[in-house]
Amino acid sequence: MLDNLKKLESAEFVEQYKEDQVSVHEDAVDLFKRYSEGGENPALKSWAAKTLPALQHHLKVAEDQEK
């Protein structure tokens, strides 16, 4: 991801960065949601559930920036 960004100029960089932010936040939300629903470690499962709303908010911000 970083190597690709280094190759881009101003406007292309901004657009790719926005796309990357949405993508990584989608991955994080998916991971935390799955673990909060089916994780084996109770403490980690609880932490994932508590952290998920913040990640979902960050995803929404990233999506809004992409518009």
Topology, element by element:
Blueprint: H1 2-6, H2 10-38, H3 42-66
Helix pairs in contact: 2-3
Describe the structure in brief.
It holds the Pfam family DUF4142. By secondary structure, the chain is mainly alpha-helical. It has helices at 2-6, 10-38, 42-66.
What attributes does this structure have?
mainly alpha; Ferritin-like; single chain; 67 residues; elongated; 0% strand
Question: What would your notes on this structure say?
Answer:
- The protein is an all-alpha fold.
- The chain has a domain at 23-67.
- The protein is built from 3 helices and no strands.
- Helix 2 runs antiparallel to helix 3.
- The longest helix is centred in the middle third of the chain and has 29 residues, at 10-38.
- The protein starts with a helix and ends with a helix.
- The mean pLDDT is 96.
In what range is the share of β-strand residues? under 5%
What's the SSE pattern? Answer: HHH
Show unreliable segments. Answer: none
Q: What is the residue-mean pLDDT, rounded to a whole number?
A: 96
Overall spatial form: elongated
Q: Work out the radius of gyration.
A: 15 Å
Query: Helical segment tally?
Result: 3
Protein name: DUF4142 domain-containing protein
InterPro entries: DUF4142 (IPR025419), Ferritin-like (IPR012347)
Domain DUF4142: 1-63
Pfam families: DUF4142
